[in-house]
TrEMBL record:
Species this chain originates from: Prevotella herbatica
Domain DUF6089: 19-214
Protein name per the record: DUF6089 domain-containing protein
Origin: domain of life: Bacteria
Pfam families attached to this UniProt entry: DUF6089
Amino acid sequence: MMIISAASMSAQKDYDYRMEIGGGLGLTGYLGDFNGNITKDLKPMFTVVLRRNIDHYMALKLAASYGKLKGSSAETNTFYTEYADGKYNFNNSIADANLSYEYNFWPYGTGYDYRGAQRFTPFISGGIGVTYCDGLNNVFTANIPLGVGLKYKIGERLNAGLEWAMHFSLSDKLDGVRDPYGISSSGLFKNTDCYSSLLLTITYSFMPKCTTCNKE
């Protein structure tokens, strides 16, 4: 009876959680007409995260982020006739909100007893979002985020995540300039600007699933 009682007490700690909330810090970088290097002119970015865990493999994540985009016509080898006599520099503020679907390759967060739990898992994500850029021209547009990352379960309710994502916007004016080549373009992603984000997040799990409910 003592052994059964101890096993029962241990099982009560083996919770799964429906929700996570938290935030993080990282870097963002602009890719467009005035920068073709994904590691150049990176600027700070911070984010807040709300995640709904569907099961051990799938989740929905709502994230809102704020950062800076920086670039210059002097940093490109392309000759733009409009800026031949001077340099064009920008350092714009950017904010976005994205709803992403995440798929974990290994079952993530399977309880408090780590002897049978998976603490690390890589994942991929994709979704849809909106972007607002405040600079020479204020821009509000949609974006498509695609990313890869790694989750780590620090403790029963504490989680860490590292994610890199590319946000493909539907606008060519995140840098304040549209079609600097002087040639108009059309199409969903034709000559549009995009930006990357590398974020380290810490989240707190809440809303434990009912361990005695048949449907849980």
